[in-house]
Amino acid sequence: MLSATPRRHARRSSSVSLRAPVAMIQRIIDRDDNGPLNCELDGDDGPCEPSRSLERYDCANMIAARDLVVHPRNDAPLPLRNPQSKDEKMTTNKPNSLTRRSLLIASCICVGCAVPGPLLADAPMIKGDSPGFFRLMVGDCEVTVLSDGKNLLAATKLLQGDTARIADALKSNFLGEQVETSHNSFLVNTGDKLVLVDAGAGTLLGPHTGKLLGNLVAAGYRPEQVDEVYLTHMHTDHIGGLMSGNQRAFPNAVVRADTRDVDYWLSEENMRAAPAAAKRFFEAAIASLSPYMTAGKIKTFEGGADLIPGIRAQPAYGHTPGHTMYEVESKGEKLLLWGDIVHVAAVQFVDPAVTIGYDVDSAEAEQEHWRVFDDAAKDRYLIGGAHLPFPGLGHVRNNGDKTYTFVSLS
Fold first, then answer.
1. Left, alpha or beta for 210 (phi > 0: left; psi -120 to 50: alpha)?
2. Statement: residue 211 has pLDDT above 70
């Protein structure tokens, strides 16, 4: 029975809006239940007993009922048989019976169309991301890409080169002056050692980065399991994640980096001589690495060096004084983790001469672009980039006209 009590209109909901029409339909059905029910859809000419399984109705039952028939003297509804062929339908002389029940079932299907207000419950926007990790095998080595997050890079301000070509490359790739940039780290499990290549930004670059530890755990590992951390270089977005609050984020790990980078970034003399805008890089390096140095957990190398079986350091100086790439090789398969060789893929593959304002030596950095692109394209090995779109894996193709194309693995 319909209630005469006025309804509150603070919020419409589908359950309130549908109650009146469903109740009204129910009353008509109750009056109709005593009459004979035509069973012609099931191929039976005569009347049959009404099915008690359909004695009470709600809207969902009535909608479902359009796919059921009532079988004579049997409470169980059966699936509809296959419809008659076109010829049979045209020649049949059986009358079609249209009852109030069938009309009500059909009308209930569309009852929501006439009900004002939303039919779905309100739901809050979910603004978080799913865990960011990607796994693959390189021979016998398991490599897990860990996302530290993304942030915006002021591409037109920071990229250095032919400004018209830079603008054209951005436009043709549907990018603007600000380009969303991935921050990728790589966890390499050789079976004997668990090695993290780059540690992410931690809390040093704001709320959109610093997700590495969470994604490492989501990928099935724990920070204390990491044996060694290899740094491609000591910029903030690669070292900030070494610390978790006031504690070392990887308490059992030895941090390894090229001697040139360690000597440059941990020098207070260099920090005092640096431009004001660059001092923050030195401060971040000292804050992030000093606790490991105090604990005797920093170990350096020079240039190309075999670090552990299956991983070798390869110098790629220019972006920073000791910028280093790491080769992961197993069973004839190779992955080159090249750090910051590329910052904006849409621009720098088609124009390797483009450098970035963060390069300590832009001329040397440009030379590395050409050398590394050419070698990766010629030998066709897989590359992993810190700032290529997540998961940052793919191949380099030489287009033969001094341009290259990045072919993403995913």
1. left
2. yes
Neighbouring C-beta atoms of residue 125, cutoff 10 Å: 4
Are 345 and 389 spatial neighbours (Cβ–Cβ below 8 Å)? yes
DSSP code per residue over 167-223? HHHHHHTT--SEEEEEEEEEEEE-SS-EEEE----TTTT-TTB--HHHHHHHTT--G
Judge whether 108 and 100 are in contact, CB under 8 Å: no
- Write the CA distances from 78 to 36, 113, 196, integer angstroms: 19, 29, 61
From first CA to last CA, the distance across the chain in angstroms is 59
∠ CA 16-22-28, nearest 5°, is 155
pLDDT digits (tens, 9 = 90+) for 319-338: 999 999 999 999 999 999 99
pLDDT digits (tens, 9 = 90+) for 221-266: 999 999 999 999 999 999 999 999 999 999 999 999 999 999 999 9
Half-sphere exposure of 409 (CA within 13 A, CB side): 19
Whole-model pTM above 0.90?
no
Whole-number CA gyration radius for the chain: 34
Quote the DSSP letter at residue 407: E
CB of 236 closer than 8 Å to CB of 210:
no
Angle in degrees, CA 120, 123, 128, rounded to 5: 145
- Residue 112 pairs in a beta bridge with none
Confidence of residue 150 (pLDDT cuts 50, 70, 90): very high
Q: How many CB atoms lie within 10 A of CB 204?
A: 19
Q: How many CB atoms lie within 10 A of CB 187?
A: 22
Q: Tell me how far apart the alpha carbons of residues 334 and 306 are, in angstroms, rounded to a whole number.
A: 15
Cα separation, 339 vs 233, whole angstroms: 8
Distance of CA 113 to the CA centre of its chain: 36
Residue 271, pLDDT above cutoff 70 = yes
Q: Are 117 and 12 in contact (CB under 8 A)?
A: yes
The candidate with the shortest Cα–Cα distance to 287, out of 248, 339, 233, is 248
Q: Which tokens belong to 175?
A: 């990018």
Measure the CA–CA gap between 188 and 218, rounded to whole angstroms. 16
DSSP, collapsed to helix, strand or coil, labels residue 369 as helix
Amino acid 122: pLDDT: 79
Residues linked to residue 397 through DSSP beta bridges, in sequence order: 405
Q: Alpha-carbon distance 385 to 319, whole Å?
A: 14
DSSP lists the bridge partners of residue 159 as 356
| Residue pair 37/101 in contact by the 8 Å Cβ criterion | yes
How far is the C-alpha of 103 from the C-alpha of 173, rounded, in Å? 55
Residue with tokens 């399984």: 53
